């Protein structure tokens, strides 16, 4: 039995059922074979993420419009419940009404961005590799002239691109809304756990870290459920650790005043620490003399000459955000390199 291969129109190549003779075998539209496979495997999560971006953008746009109208009508821009700004005198009731009406929707938006990296870790990055290794389906792919490093790159690259695009869009829309109702008037300040984790590059960096953690954990553990638990625990641990480190990522401002002198920082300032300072310049805890019978005698005994406050002004927000995001992205790169080394060592 013989077969005959017909030349194409230009006489340079065979045609075997592809009239155009131009499409490479194994390709599906604009995605190559591996890319198409990854898209098909995770299209449900990608679709949910796209829906979250669209709904989040609509939510933020509506909330921004409504809060802007309220703030303008009540003249409470930049006002807090207790403010030193003269024009904010008598606005306490309006600020309270604003927070009662719009505080919960704002917190929901912030919580969504805070939890987004955790959701990516649980439902995308943890099963991404672990499920393939646990079921053994990776063996079929690796026998189709696809090297292990190329397979890992394809498995991680498309999800990383989708996650980067989606989280960047959500963070940008949230920051656009935050310009109107953030900080003083809402009582949700830039340095709060929810506020800081929702603004700028921070949610983007942590989402990419979640992807890297899940991929590496999947390669090492090879069990989907175990990988999900370890990835979740690792992300929570990393977020808490960096949150504790956050105040010390750049030098703080400090103000000093006499022991009985009243002092207050700007409404938008992040108070990090406070206490007493001695004649020699040493800093002591602000609870030093709380239980002392004679407060004044206690201060004299410790040679206290005044009080201090360490703080970050609002101008430190973006430098702190970029520094922390840089640390997270470096960690992401390190974990990615380790993942490729593990893949090469185990699968050649």
Give a quick set of tags describing it.
6 strands; 348 residues; 9% strand; alpha+beta; two-stranded antiparallel ribbon; disordered N terminus
Structural notes for this entry:
- The protein contains nine helices and six strands; from the N terminus they run E-E-H-H-H-H-H-H-H-E-E-E-H-E-H.
- The protein is 61% helix and 9% strand.
- With 348 residues, it is α+β, with helices and mostly antiparallel strands.
- It has helices spanning 33-74, 92-135, 138-142, 148-181, 193-198, 202-221, 224-245, 295-301, 317-347; strands at residues 6-7, 14-15, 253-257, 270-278, 283-285, 304-312.
- The chain has two domains: 33-250 and 321-347, no CATH class; 253-315, no CATH class.
- The strands form two sheets. A four-stranded antiparallel β-sheet has the order 3-6-4-5. A two-stranded antiparallel ribbon has the order 1-2.
Topology overview:
Blueprint: E1 6-7, E2 14-15, H1 33-74, H2 92-135, H3 138-142, H4 148-181, H5 193-198, H6 202-221, H7 224-245, E3 253-257, E4 270-278, E5 283-285, H8 295-301, E6 304-312, H9 317-347
Antiparallel strand pairs: 1-2, 3-6, 4-5, 4-6
Helix pairs in contact: 1-2, 1-4, 2-4, 2-6, 2-7, 4-6, 4-9, 6-7, 6-9
N- and C-termini, Cα separation = 40 Å
Strand order of the largest sheet: 3-6-4-5
> Per the principal axes of the C-alpha atoms, what is the gross shape?
flat
Structural class: alpha+beta
Uncertain residue segments: 1-31
Number of domains: 2
By DSSP, the count of extended strands is: 6
Helix and strand string, N-terminal first?
EEHHHHHHHEEEHEH
- The amount of helix comes to 55-70%
Strand content: 5-15%
Q: Report the mean per-residue pLDDT as an integer.
A: 84
Radius of gyration: 28 Å
Tally the helices: what do you get?
Answer: 9
Biggest sheet details: 4 strands, antiparallel
